[in-house]
């Protein structure tokens, strides 16, 4: 008996190791450990440097102490101002409406405030404040949603959306949702396809319906990569992109990571993304097929997007392109008009979709 047991143990080890690896990958994907640690260190360092500066200079120069402390805490707003200056120059040749000085100033201030909330609080300290909703029996028959964030973000980015969706669900019918954390942070966008696949499978199983994908920035490109590789067009109800560089962004020329290089204007990766899978024919046929596939997209974009510019790069031919004046890149994702329109789409009765 002992020899039989000893023989079975080694044979079972590969299965056990595979199960543990899959479980570890799911935990790692869900929690976005890399971004949490990175932004906790960044926030802690900013606060520590500001504190040391203020304590050191306070006895001799209180004003210098306060100004220097604020500079340590809010210095990033200067970098954001440089981004806004660049978008003004680059957008001169773009067909989208030009932003006024007042719109640019307001957008800069709002974006600076949003950056603090997202990168110094929600993502590093409240990434899992609202858990995924996948296990309730009442979820069946209601449209589910998968939230996909952008570069150097995690699921904490979507916390206000998740709270609002949860609140609406408590008043009416709950909806299945999951917000993923895509890592490695600076890896190829193609590397996120498997994580999106798992999320779509989970939400589809919980709701019994093809989900809506809600994507910010690079997340929209990851969703399109998933659609191409997994033939996902028929497996999703709709795709909403918010400030996604569908045709690349001017700023990506300074990026060195794999995903950043993929988002450069005119990159080979972006050109391949526009080619529907397994479609032959001439360029006109491919273009028509691509435009037809993009009819299930809603693309929100703004003339004050300080990351994705020229402005029109955030649109898709054949999509429902919705222009918003005067909103920064992160700010755009939390505008009431964007959130309400998208949440209304999610809350819509699936039966009315079928009859409509």
Summarize the structure.
By secondary structure, this protein is of the alpha/beta class. It has a domain at 137-355: 3-Layer(aba) Sandwich (Rossmann fold).
Gross morphology:
globular
* The CATH H-level homologous superfamily of the domain at 137-355: Alpha/Beta hydrolase fold, catalytic domain
Query: In terms of per-residue confidence, which ranges show pLDDT below 50 for 5 or more consecutive residues?
Result: 1-30
Number of helices: 13
User: How would you write the strand order of the largest sheet?
Assistant: 2-1-3-4-5-6
Largest sheet: 6 strands, parallel
The level 1 CATH classification of the domain at 137-355 is: Alpha Beta
| N to C succession of SSEs | HHHHHEHEHEHEHHHEEHH
Roughly what is the average pLDDT, rounded to an integer?
Answer: 88
Total number of beta strands:
6
Question: Over all CA atoms, what is the radius of gyration?
Answer: 23 Å
Structural category: alpha/beta
Helix content: 40-55%
- The CATH architecture term of the domain at 137-355 is 3-Layer(aba) Sandwich
Predict the CATH topology of the domain at 137-355: Rossmann fold
- First CA to last CA: what distance? 66 Å
Strand fraction = 5-15%
